[in-house]
């Protein structure tokens, strides 16, 4: 019998986008808690780099699959079940914004390309729903498991410029609540679905939007964010991991259908 409610020994987690800054931190945290990890993504070399770190702690593997391709996801599910025998968790870290779906002085809302908007919405919303369909089915068949989606501050408090991304993340919030109810009522109350809403973390995608590439000092946008973050700093990837482990582990057995901000207080601050 486990005495540590955060012990994930014997479990298997599937992590889309696990080679990114935040996804990597989550993968390592799961491994350190005793879980095995299968990373899904399109860039095998980047995934294998994280797998090498995982294998020093536990057992990990990389499976090439596009989160927007159901056939590839179903093939990945078979590969993972054949290797590990089970799937306990799904973490949907795959996502991100597109420069051409972002307004600027040269690109107004009215001129944003349809293809760019659809790309941002599909990656973040459909790219969350499809893995939930494929890997959630494996959990439903077992009658237990936990899904962790990744929302954003842009869903809670619409940010300027990032229209498609913000709309998609708001959709992720709604979908998270819907799926939590659906799985618990239609399949098993031991199936849980929650989401994280990270605040402003420095990742490879936004680092030079929030900090100056040469000096490392906050840009004008970065300064505005820090002024509205009571803890007055950007998040570090490890700031997410405690909440990740809580939402996956038996410690949150009665928690489902929520979106948890991990944001240094940004969502609580009105600006005055």
Describe the structure.
This protein is an alpha/beta fold and 272 residues long. 42% of the residues lie in helices and 14% in strands. The protein contains 9 helices and 7 strands. The radius of gyration is 18 Å and the shape is globular.
Features:
alpha/beta, seven-stranded parallel beta sheet, 7 strands, 9 helices, globular, 272 residues
**What is the alpha-carbon Rg in Å?**
18 Å
Return residue spans where pLDDT drops below 50 for at least 5 consecutive residues: none
* Portion in strands: 5-15%
- Average pLDDT confidence is 95
What form results from the Cα inertia axes? globular
Computed structural class = alpha/beta
Number of strands: 7
Distance between the termini: 50 Å
Helix segment count?
A: 9
Describe the largest sheet: 7 strands, parallel
Give the strand order of the largest sheet, numbering strands 1, 2, ... along the chain. 3-2-1-4-5-6-7
Q: What pattern of helices and strands is seen along the backbone?
A: EHEHEHEHEHHEHHHE
Report the helical percentage: 40-55%
Topology:
Layout: E1 12-16, H1 21-32, E2 36-41, H2 44-54, E3 60-64, H3 70-84, E4 89-92, H4 114-142, E5 145-150, H5 153-156, H6 163-186, E6 191-198, H7 207-210, H8 220-227, H9 241-248, E7 259-262
Parallel strand pairs: 1-2, 1-4, 2-3, 4-5, 5-6, 6-7
């Amino acid at each position: 019998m486990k005495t540590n409610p955060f012990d994930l020994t014997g479990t298997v987690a599937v992590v889309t986008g696990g080679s990114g800054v935040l996804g990597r931190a989550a993968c390592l945290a799961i491994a350190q808690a005793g879980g095995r990890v299968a990373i899904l993504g399109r860039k095998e070399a980047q995934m294998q780099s994280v797998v090498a770190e995982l294998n020093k702690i536990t057992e990990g593997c990389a499976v090439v699959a596009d989160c927007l391709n159901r056939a590839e996801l179903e093939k990945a599910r078979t590969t993972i079940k054949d290797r590990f025998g089970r799937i306990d968790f799904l973490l949907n870290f795959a996502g991100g914004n597109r420069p051409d779906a972002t307004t600027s002085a040269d690109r107004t809302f009215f001129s944003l390309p349809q293809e760019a908007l659809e790309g941002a919405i599909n990656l973040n919303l459909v790219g969350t729903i499809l893995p939930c369909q494929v890997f959630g089915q494996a959990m439903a068949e077992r009658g237990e498991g936990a899904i962790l989606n990744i929302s954003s501050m842009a869903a809670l408090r619409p940010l300027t410029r990032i229209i498609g991304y913000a709309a998609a993340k708001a959709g992720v919030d709604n979908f998270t609540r819907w799926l939590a109810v659906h799985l618990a009522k239609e399949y098993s109350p031991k199936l849980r679905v929650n989401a994280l809403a990270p605040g402003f973390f420095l990742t490879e995608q936004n680092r030079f939007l929030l900090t100056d590439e040469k000096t490392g000092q906050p840009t004008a946008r970065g300064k505005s964010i820090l002024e509205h973050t009571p803890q007055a700093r950007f998040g570090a990837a490890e700031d997410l991991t405690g909440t990740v482990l809580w939402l996956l582990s038996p410690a949150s057995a009665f928690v489902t259908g929520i979106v948890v901000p991990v944001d240094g207080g940004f969502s609580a601050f009105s600006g005055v």
